Amino acid sequence: MSEFQNVTVVKKANVYFNGSVTSRTIVFADGTKKTLGIMLPGEYEFNTGAKELMEILSGELDVLLPQNSGWQAIQGGQAFEVPANSKFSLKVKTVTDYCCSFLAE
Fold first, then answer.
1. pLDDT at residue 2, as a whole number
2. Domain 7-103 has CATH 2.60.40.10
3. pTM score, two decimals?
């Protein structure tokens, strides 16, 4: 799906790591949320509350997920899931465009 229709966009940006990672939250009619964002090259660690699906629209990164012992290479067109109440690390190699979906358990 290349676009979302009938959504509410939260005007305030989510800004992390001094602006190296930014996103906007969109809310669907059923209350589900996604964020659309950009990550600049760098190394980042995130904490999650809800289970997440990270779709990488373009770019290249390595991800270290809590259930894995090693880094996994990810590029545009690929996705990965992050368990609820966990943390994961990213090594972003190129400017990366992403869509993060917050999933129900």
1. 79
2. no
3. 0.92
